């Protein structure tokens, strides 16, 4: 020891070897006399030397203190001295860790001092021990009372530790949510970012919610509507024309469409009146409202974005009978399902699974696509539990692939 060594473990090995020799001398010559005093003095010297050489080091394996307490209790048969070893240790940095309190209680239990062991747990359970030690000592106390105590002792311990356990569980859940959000943001940062001009151009090319769409023919008619004149024409009163059937849907703010009950469609495009007539070959339903019909959320030609997206999304999962021209909707319960919009047109289901997989078990990913198979910019993500749903909702306003996502619990109209 006087020669000096490299580090803590080197000193520890030499000291433990020296203490082994002192303990064996006591066993050979008896605990009385100089052998017993030499063993106790050896432990005191080891603790003091390590503390002076390494003041900031904490040996959480407690090799010297555990050895010393066991030697006092079972070799020198001095129970008060064994307890004093741990009482002195708890006043140092070691007392901030769960392992020291657990070792002290284990010593009392090995001596069958159940009351004293319970006293150690009662002193320790309410302390803010390092690195989750408070929860560990609470669990150990409950296990001790189940194995050693009466039902009343166990119930009393539960009453004391339950609030601490619940608080720790809530804190852990909050940390888990933060980690899930952080993982989603990290995935979003790895996605390629687009400039503002690139994002606008891509949306103009692909996003049906942004691109101006020409009016479509009503149900029962064939062909796309084609402009047949630039000037406003009087309404037709011919009885042979089919009344236009409408559905609630999206209308661009730049296009102000009027439909007569029994006449050709008239539309104002960039300030000019045009009359539209059906052309051959179309089976698409009309996207515009009847004249005089008020759309929810519409004011002066502008629709509420949230209402429109859910209304449009509500028609995304439909099986179409092309022969009869009728749509058979696929019904979903929307239980534990979120509605996500703001997606890029090139998004794939696998990317959505990777983004939301950290929230919990995924039941289904339904990405809305148009007739050409391109993404329509929104999707439904169905989870296996309400907890996973809440984690997904917490990802609202997350940036992903250069766009800010809107995420909310699915609640489509109707």
Round the mean pLDDT to the nearest integer and report it.
Answer: 74
Give the SSE order as H and E letters: HHHHHHHHHEEEEEEHEEEHEEHEEE
Compute the number of strand runs.
Answer: 14
DSSP strand (E) fraction?
A: 15-25%
Helical stretch tally:
12
Q: Give the strand order of the largest sheet, numbering strands 1, 2, ... along the chain.
A: 1-4-3-2
Write down the Rg.
Answer: 38 Å
Main beta sheet strand tally, sense and closure:
4 strands, antiparallel
Terminal CA distance reads: 83 Å
Shape: elongated
- pLDDT below 50 for ≥5 consecutive residues: which ranges? 217-307, 313-327
Portion in helices: 40-55%
Q: Quickly give the structural class.
A: alpha+beta
What does this structure look like?
With 414 residues, this protein is of the alpha+beta class. Helices cover 44% and strands 15% of the residues. The chain has twelve helices and 14 strands. Helix 7 (133-148) packs antiparallel against helix 8.
Give the gist of this structure.
Helices cover 44% and strands 15% of the residues.
Task: Describe this protein with a few key phrases.
414 residues, alpha+beta, 4-stranded antiparallel β-sheet, 44% helix
List the helices and strands and how they pair.
Blueprint: H1 8-29, H2 34-53, H3 63-74, H4 79-90, H5 98-110, H6 114-124, H7 133-148, H8 151-190, H9 196-206, E1 225-229, E2 255-258, E3 265-269, E4 272-278, E5 298-299, E6 302-303, H10 305-313, E7 318-321, E8 326-329, E9 337-341, H11 349-356, E10 362-369, E11 375-383, H12 386-393, E12 399-400, E13 403-404, E14 406-409
Antiparallel strand pairs: 1-4, 2-3, 3-4, 5-6, 7-8, 9-11, 9-14, 10-11, 12-13
Helix pairs in contact: 1-2, 2-3, 3-4, 4-5, 5-6, 5-7, 6-7, 7-8
